[in-house]
Amino acid sequence: MSSTLAKIVEIKAKMTWTQKNKATAHHLGLLKAHLGGGGGGPGEGFDVAKTGDARTGFAGLPSVGKLTLLSNLAGVYSEVAACEFTTLTTVPGVIRHKGAKIQLLDLPGIIKGAKDGKGRGQVIAVALTCNLILIVLDVLKPLGRKKINENELEGFGVRLNSKPSNIGFKKKDKGGINLTATCLQSELDAETVKSILAEYKIHNANVTLRSDATADDLIDVVEGNRIGYIIYKVPHCVPISAHRRWNFDDLLEKIWDYLKLMRIYTKPKGQLPDYTSPVVLPCSRTTVEDFCMKTHKNLIKEFKCALVWGLSVKHNPQKAGKDHTLEDEDVIQIAKK
Q: Which intervals hold domain OBG-type G (predicted)?
């Protein structure tokens, strides 16, 4: 077992031994933060450089057809055989859909106990970097097998079909940790929040708790890469044939809907808008400032105002500041100081 997985197992064991109540919430929060912030990378041979506007992973038991699906969607070729554990590393591919560049990952087959270090548990750590995970199931095998996938993913902090926590979090340069709670908190207090953030070397930030939040909720927001939605229940499923390439259009539309991406088109001064290469933003970060940071980090330093056309404004064009929230397919022109 690798040192990373050994560390994960040790921390999880401590969490299991600790009785969960209000008195131990602070200790459990620190262990969970240490698991996320200090757990290290996914392991050699499994990590893949993140590219594009979003990342979608295919998870499932061995030999369920994930690689065939990836190959036919993205044109990636790798050895495929009618036996278990064919794919021993994470295989990446890229597709373009509605102007967005979406990275696809074929994750090595999940086996029972992976979350506890059995087999290739590193693969689930890679899954945590995805914006969306699709659990691939064989229609000829019992749907009860999906429970294995669910349990292993849950064990590594993947939230199944859950909505992101209602927590405001923003780093700042100085001023320490400012905590504001708009409702009664049963688990998080100022000391716990500061300790969790310290695990991520964050000592200056504004945190707003708008619901009764847990340490897991705060860690999810801080890490910013925990998965909020997974297609795995029948109402969310898409029947396909990977070999025959049946129903791929519906699959791509479902991926697009769940990723909740927004396309913002740029308009250079005195020119027509560029509708060929949108700046793609996640629905959680759609302000003019987010647009500037995605385009170029120095752009916000030179920012004067923005002219916006589209659904987010009442007049076309309308002058807007950096806090203005954009809508899908808005057009924006940045004026510099």
A: 54-260
Whether residues 126 and 26 fall in one domain: no
Instruction: Confirm whether 74 is domain-assigned.
Output: yes
- Same domain flag for 26 and 71: no
Distance CA 123, CA 88 (A): 10
Tens of pLDDT, residue by residue over 64-105, are 888 889 889 888 655 544 444 445 567 888 999 999 999 998
Per the document, the length of the chain is 337
Residues paired with 162 in a beta bridge: none
Helix (H) or strand (E) holding 326: none
| Cis geometry, peptide bond prior to residue 317 (ω within 30 degrees of 0) | yes
User: How buried is residue 57: exposed, middle or buried, by Cβ count under 10 Å (0-12/13-18/19+)?
Assistant: buried
Listed in sequence order, the residues at least 6 apart from 55 whose beta carbon sits closer than 8 Å to its beta carbon are 102, 103, 104, 105, 129, 130, 131, 132
Q: How far apart are the first and last CA of the chain?
A: 56
Tokens 């990836």, residue located: 70
Q: Are 74 and 95 in contact (CB under 8 A)?
A: yes
pLDDT in tens, 16-58: 555 555 455 555 556 556 555 444 444 444 567 788 999 998 8
Residue 222's pLDDT band (cuts 50, 70, 90): confident
Q: Is 310 left (phi over 0), alpha (psi -120 to 50) or beta?
A: left
Residue listed under structure tokens 């705060």: 218
Closest C-alpha among 150, 188, 148, 186 to residue 169: 188
